[in-house]
Amino acid sequence: MSFLDYAPAPESTAILSLKSDYGLFIDGEFVDGHGTPFSTISPATEKTIATIASANDEDVDRAVAAARRAYDKTWSRMSGSDRGKYLFRIARLVQERARELAVAESLDNGKPIKESRDVDVPLVAAWFFYYAGWADKLDYAGAGANPAALGVAGQIIPWNFPLLMLAWKIAPALAAGNTVVLKPAETTPLTALLFAEILQQADLPAGVVNIITGAGATGSALVDHPGVDKIAFTGSTNVGRGIAKAIAGSDKRVTLELGGKAANIVFDDAPIDQAIEGIVNGIFFNQGHVCCAGSRLLVQESIHDEVVDRLKERLSTLRLGDPLDKNTDIGAVNSAAQLERIRTLSDIGESEGADRWSADCVIPADGFWFPPTIFTNVSTSHRIARDEVFGPVLSVLTFRTPAEAIAKANNTPYGLSAGIWSDKGSRILAVADKLRAGVIWANTFNRFDPASPFGGYKESGYGREGGRHGLAGYLKPAGSARAVTASPASDSTDSVITTTKEAAK
Amino acid sequence: MSRLAVPKTYKLYIGGKFPRSESGRTYEVVTTKGAFLANAAKASRKDARDAVVAARSAVSGWANATAYNRGQVLYRIAELLEGRRAQFIDEIVQSEGVSTAAATRQVDEAIDRWVWYAGWADKYVQVTGNANPVSGPYFNLSVPEPTGVVAIVAPQDSSLLGFVSVVAPALVAGNTVVVLASERLPLSAITLSEVLATSDVPGGVVNILTGSPAEVAPWLASHADVNAIDLTGAGALDWVDLEIAAAETLKRVLRPEGGADPAAPSLDRITALTETKTVWHTKSLI
Amino acid sequence: MTDTQKALVPRPTALELFDGPVTDASLRRYLEGIPGIDAVGLEQRAAGLGTRSIKTTSKKRALDTIIGLIDLTTLEGADTPGKVRSLVAKAITPDASDPSTPRVAAVCVYGDMVPYAVEALGVHHAKGTGSGIQVAAVATAFPSGRASLAIKLSDTADAVDAGADEIDMVIDRGAFLSGRYGQVFDEIVAVKEACRRSDGSYAHLKVILETGELNTYDNIRRASWLAILAGGDFIKTSTGKVAPAATLPVTLLMLEVVRDWNRLTGEKIGVKPAGGIRTSKDAIKYLVTVAETVGEEWLQPSLFRFGASSLLNDVLLQRQKMTTGHYSGADYVTID
Q1: Nearest CA of chain C to the CA of B284: how many Å?
Q2: Based on CB atoms within 10 Å of each CB, which residue in A18, A26, A453, B43 is the most buried?
């Protein structure tokens, strides 16, 4: 028996006390939805976890109305320091229930417990702590003295980091004085509903945060709702495009965190073992379900073979399987639909002539799984080098000079993130300067922090989340009787003040 | 004996050159009373296309110039504007039908506003960038940088001030621009292009199209190589359609502004056309 | 190069690699051409390996494996024949209450204590064979290494003559830090030669880098390559007399060098973290790091050792807990 066949080390689910049915969280209470309920399943076993209510248009209306009432009557009148105290409370409760949240997240999403335990949930708490402290210091946020909240924020989040994306959205919105209607992804509503319980524990005033579950139609209803002042969305570029069109002509402001096809550039003088780790973390973290994933490896031609060899060797040590096992490195793909997309794009990669290599993993019988996969011999014109796969699939391309690396890295409609690996500081800084991406990691990858702004160029969206810049999307200057229209590049410290142009449609 | 005047031919300004519209079209610029003032080129979609090509090829030179250099180049324009004060005032009086005093105020404000923006070139990064105290062994900085090619619909009811108010802030960070000048009041914009041509602004950084914004703006809004569109002067157009077209490639959009002084000077006008880039770097003694 | 070079040869593969004589300049070129280390990434990888959760049957196997990899060590000025005999007894019978307990790999003592260790081991002395317990001696003016080459060589030869199967030498950190790689190299070559027994066989040579004094990961990586090129059979982190001693990132880094050497030449070099590893929990992290970096083939005494003293008892306590189902206490294991 091999030492490397570690005995199972499953995290216990006994800590969870889940209900069989979850309603919508509106105005501080769980209420029935009026759409057709749906099941949320564990992607690792395909077993149903709970039945989830679906919000129809009236439910969305009710949630927005609750948020508006809470904004008018409570939240906008509360002192910044009191708002901050609520956020601090929430942060503490997240820490206290961290294990439970991590288990629920891995169960519902399929991500390895070591990631939900060591990355997602700690960052959730950190996000609330960070923005809690901003709530009574908004004069320093860059929007001038006494900036005002926007009102009701409609927030739509994806399934890849369910609770973390919730924190990215809710924490700055509340700190800035907005109230929230949030819609979690259809396949991963569980932790948002547990979070609603935390809000009850924290005694957050009713209606300040409303959580409505449902599919795309629920999201559309929220985006189109005239009572919403701000839309914040994280998800695919296609849906983001649709949202940008839907709000055109309105006074709604918008923040979009969309897709990416990040280049991870490895120069011949890179710290090689750390670069290998960075490549692995860049594309196989969270099964590659990461918008900023380093899905295009650009490796200097002179070290291509060595890097690929080492990478394959390293990938062979990755453990795929039960997300709740503490030793699992690669969990389940979140849904059958996503698995299908990964398979389709991988097949296209092969048919286009790239060489496919997959780690030799035992694939469990039930659930949705895809082994860590590398494509070599990839050209910039191949679809696997251009389309976002959103899965554990890496395309390897080569370059000869720094200028070529930069040109290839920028040759994409996306511009979310990039990585640079080199021992030469001056080159790192020069390359970082020229990459058209919102987040650049030098000799590291996939690092996140509430103090650090995150967001993309070009079709990766607009606005920044995190840091001081993350508040800009939820604030407008003081005393403005005029509407604040979207400067979608809301990484500006605030928006351009304009007179209201009535929506022409 | 009176001298026979030499009338001026007003052309487009693309890539540092003064072409006629490739379409060969012109339109009459008239006074508020309807008297003929000049023939201006009526830009076509192909002129817009050429202007975007010129603007794109000028981005890297302009964006990568040092901030100090960009500030000096922009300030130099203010110097040249000052030298042409009389011409601008004269044109504004003629085309807007305002008093010399009002035209003078407009020109002075435009020059001063240009000076104000020129001074931002080497400061806006400091004011809007950030050092981020992340919890880990990382050096982490956020800095704004230009978004790239910006298409602008200039305010339609202002000759010079409106034009300067939208063009200057876009240039500060290092963007290059394609501007649709006021259709009715294009003379100041054209004269300004002559200033630009003799200044140190590299060709292609500012491209000026006269003609019908209603006809040309949709081509810029949907152009995939345009990064942002400033609709300040598009209030009378079908600007919602322009915003929808711009959403196709997720362009940054500034919505229309009206009022007495659209695009009033603000730092936000600069930063609205920038992207914040955050760079993480590991740090360790050992 | 020094005069000693005439009689001495480094590892043959090193000569092939250098395609000519090994000099200060060629060593510098070679060592400085190896890719750098990013400390943050290295430490994160080590921390990641440290989160593996080893349970039940895997843990039992891990605990037994650890015992079999321990160089049970006493390196005190106060060491006496009696202390060494006691140590040897513990090495032979780590846990008298459980005869299934494996024996440790070696006892590690100062050179003058070697005869007592050999005597105390008696039939259990491995004498360089695969079964039994080895006697390792620290040499070359351990721990500082501050003595003339002649003294270091005679220190080594003396221990080998007394029956030491393994020599744990220290490199000249002063020479290394001042860039005299050739001198460090020559000394290792010379000490290796001093490990030669009259029958032509060699005592196993472990080269202690004293990573706490080399300070940077790049230095440690270069010193690891240097020690291997010169002919060391093992690279060892520390004397145990300087803090920090063994750390998981340093050991990971040395394992990566060993892996790369194996990739380059097919040769297998051993790694010995020493000092500071006191708990089973820590030691298991090292096992995981070995298995996932260079392969579990390295989890054998000829390729991996723990230089430790108090670690053994912690492993025994854990082992007793697994056997009996309840927690044991310090009075239920012998102090040495």
Answers
A1: 6
A2: B43
